[in-house]
Amino acid sequence: MQKLKNQNRREFIEGAAFSAAGLMVVPRHVKGGIPAMSNFEYASKLTEITLLGVLSLRLGGQKVYWDSKEMKATGLPEADIFIREPVRKGWGMA
Q: Does the structure show a pLDDT above 50 at 1?
Protein backbone atom coordinates (compact mmCIF):
# COMPACT_ATOMS: atom_id res chain seq x y z
CA MET A 1 0.00 0.00 0.00
CA GLN A 2 2.89 2.37 0.76
CA LYS A 3 4.21 1.89 -2.80
CA LEU A 4 0.83 2.93 -4.24
CA LYS A 5 0.71 6.03 -2.02
CA ASN A 6 4.17 7.05 -3.11
CA GLN A 7 3.39 6.47 -6.79
CA ASN A 8 0.29 8.63 -6.57
CA ARG A 9 2.24 11.38 -4.79
CA ARG A 10 5.04 11.19 -7.36
CA GLU A 11 2.57 11.55 -10.25
CA PHE A 12 1.07 14.61 -8.57
CA ILE A 13 4.44 16.21 -7.90
CA GLU A 14 5.64 15.56 -11.48
CA GLY A 15 2.51 17.14 -12.92
CA ALA A 16 2.63 20.10 -10.53
CA ALA A 17 6.32 20.73 -11.25
CA PHE A 18 5.77 20.76 -15.01
CA SER A 19 2.78 23.07 -14.69
CA ALA A 20 4.50 25.51 -12.32
CA ALA A 21 7.57 25.76 -14.52
CA GLY A 22 5.43 26.24 -17.64
CA LEU A 23 7.39 23.54 -19.42
CA MET A 24 6.00 21.42 -22.21
CA VAL A 25 7.47 18.26 -20.70
CA VAL A 26 5.27 15.18 -20.87
CA PRO A 27 5.21 13.10 -17.66
CA ARG A 28 6.43 9.51 -18.07
CA HIS A 29 2.88 8.17 -17.61
CA VAL A 30 1.72 9.84 -20.81
CA LYS A 31 4.62 8.55 -22.89
CA GLY A 32 3.34 4.97 -22.84
CA GLY A 33 5.17 3.97 -19.69
CA ILE A 34 3.46 2.62 -16.61
CA PRO A 35 -0.24 3.51 -16.43
CA ALA A 36 -1.04 6.49 -14.23
CA MET A 37 -3.06 5.84 -11.10
CA SER A 38 -5.50 8.49 -12.33
CA ASN A 39 -6.57 6.37 -15.30
CA PHE A 40 -9.12 8.45 -17.23
CA GLU A 41 -10.64 5.44 -18.98
CA TYR A 42 -11.63 4.04 -15.60
CA ALA A 43 -12.38 7.40 -13.96
CA SER A 44 -14.71 8.60 -16.73
CA LYS A 45 -16.89 5.49 -16.42
CA LEU A 46 -16.96 5.77 -12.64
CA THR A 47 -17.96 9.44 -12.88
CA GLU A 48 -20.70 8.64 -15.39
CA ILE A 49 -22.18 5.96 -13.11
CA THR A 50 -22.05 8.32 -10.11
CA LEU A 51 -23.78 11.11 -12.02
CA LEU A 52 -26.48 8.69 -13.18
CA GLY A 53 -27.17 7.92 -9.52
CA VAL A 54 -27.52 11.64 -8.82
CA LEU A 55 -29.83 11.97 -11.84
CA SER A 56 -32.01 9.16 -10.51
CA LEU A 57 -32.24 10.89 -7.13
CA ARG A 58 -33.21 14.19 -8.78
CA LEU A 59 -35.98 12.32 -10.60
CA GLY A 60 -37.41 10.91 -7.38
CA GLY A 61 -35.60 7.56 -7.50
CA GLN A 62 -36.75 6.53 -10.98
CA LYS A 63 -34.74 3.90 -12.85
CA VAL A 64 -32.55 5.48 -15.50
CA TYR A 65 -31.80 3.51 -18.65
CA TRP A 66 -28.75 5.25 -20.09
CA ASP A 67 -27.71 5.37 -23.75
CA SER A 68 -24.05 6.34 -23.40
CA LYS A 69 -23.53 6.72 -27.13
CA GLU A 70 -26.33 9.32 -27.42
CA MET A 71 -25.82 10.65 -23.86
CA LYS A 72 -29.54 10.42 -23.16
CA ALA A 73 -31.78 8.74 -20.66
CA THR A 74 -34.00 6.40 -22.69
CA GLY A 75 -37.71 7.04 -22.17
CA LEU A 76 -37.21 9.87 -19.66
CA PRO A 77 -37.65 13.21 -21.43
CA GLU A 78 -37.92 14.93 -18.03
CA ALA A 79 -34.27 14.02 -17.41
CA ASP A 80 -33.04 16.13 -20.33
CA ILE A 81 -33.09 19.35 -18.32
CA PHE A 82 -30.59 17.84 -15.87
CA ILE A 83 -28.40 16.19 -18.52
CA ARG A 84 -28.04 19.23 -20.76
CA GLU A 85 -28.71 22.31 -18.72
CA PRO A 86 -29.43 25.49 -20.71
CA VAL A 87 -26.38 27.67 -21.26
CA ARG A 88 -26.63 31.05 -19.54
CA LYS A 89 -26.35 34.17 -21.66
CA GLY A 90 -22.71 35.14 -22.19
CA TRP A 91 -21.37 31.65 -21.39
CA GLY A 92 -21.91 29.97 -24.78
CA MET A 93 -19.24 28.46 -26.97
CA ALA A 94 -18.07 30.68 -29.80
A: no
Q: ∠ CA 68-70-72 to the nearest 5 degrees?
A: 75
Look at residue 58 in the predicted model and tell me its pLDDT: 94
Contact 73, 55 (CB under 8 A): yes
Burial of 75 (0-12, 13-18, 19+ CB in 10 A): exposed
Calculate the CA 84 to chain-centre distance.
Answer: 16
Sign of CA dihedral 26, 28, 30, 36: negative
The answer to whether residues 18 and 25 touch, using CB atoms and an 8 Å cutoff, is: yes
Position 84: which residue type?
R
Strands (E) in the chain, as ranges, are: 66-67, 72-73
Across 11-34, average pLDDT: 56
